[in-house]
Amino acid sequence: MVSNMLMDNNHKFIRGKKETFRSCRGISLIEVVISMFLTAIGIMAIMSMQPSAWKTEARADYMGRAAMILSAELERQQAWIMNPCNSVTVNPATTTAVVRSSGMAASLEGDAVYTVTTTVTSIGTNIFTVIVTVAWNGGANIITESTNVIRQELWRFPEGCPNA
After folding, report:
1. Beta-ladder partners of 127
2. Which of 14, 61, 122, 139 has the greatest number of beta carbons closer than 10 A?
3. What is the pTM of this model?
């Protein structure tokens, strides 16, 4: 009885009968057709999500470039205002510039065009608020950031310059 329960690598026991793997049934044609059908449905579902993924990726690309432009402008304004040797136009001073993603003066094919608006306002003696807005797609998409900047003597350059 114990010998009927033993199995080796080449045989298996079904209901007490010894059968080789060669005699076991394989996959039927209907099972193959069903698995191909389910795989095709899965592939079509994944492909239907592709256009929305491209749209999201393009929006993220535009927003990332706009954030980089915004950060660079805020840093530039902050460095300028912190130096007591530089004069600052305020109450409020608003400037608008067009920036292309290529960094070139003229548009190149595929260039994204951003409109950068910077406003500097005095909120106290040697204290300023800088607001930078970056818009693209004709103003349909906008990001804005602001910072307060205080003039600092340690930023005086060149040394010995008169107060602005």
Report:
1. 124, 150
2. 122
3. 0.69
